[in-house]
Amino acid sequence: MAVGRARPRGEERRAEILRAALEVIAERGYRGASLGAVAERVGLTQQGLLHYFPTKEALLVAVLEARDQWDAVPHGEWRLDLLGSLVEYNAMRPGIVQTFSALLGESVTDGHPARPFFTGRYEAVRESFAAVLRAEYGELLPGGLTPEAAAPLMVAVMDGLQYQWLLDPESVDMPGAFRAFLALLGAGPGQRLD
Known about the structure:
Number of helices: 9
Number of strands: 0
Distance between the termini: 60 Å
Strand content: under 5%
Order of helices and strands: HHHHHHHHH
Oligomer: single chain
Shape: elongated
Structural class: mainly alpha
């Protein structure tokens, strides 16, 4: 007798499709990825794939949501040191970072199906980062910024480092550069960052 519950076959198949879709999008970008290519990768017909995800857009949003679930930290449990660990973790999985970055770049165009996802995600991330900064520094960071003013800067640094690292991983130490940025946040005006 098995202990615990096995995942139903439908959930396993959905998870398999999401992993395959992530791979196909990483290889071809969202616009170049087809439902047929994803279906073929998991041994389904395109019609069979549509049973699980009725449109390409539905599949894309499910991939993005699944990626966030894979990286999830329980709400309210982020700390500044965990953000540094997240950057280190991302440096070990360039394919996932590349897919996310490519979709993010594509999503800025009008009508892109991932635009609402990323808009909502960034709002939540800024709020979360502001809470992390408030827990670490209070209402003002040593440099005088409020947590709400510093949060978008932190997001910009993380994303900008990812793009630079993806373009030239030999020249950009993404985790090291992010640690340096965190040191800047903690330094007051005129403080040295040795």
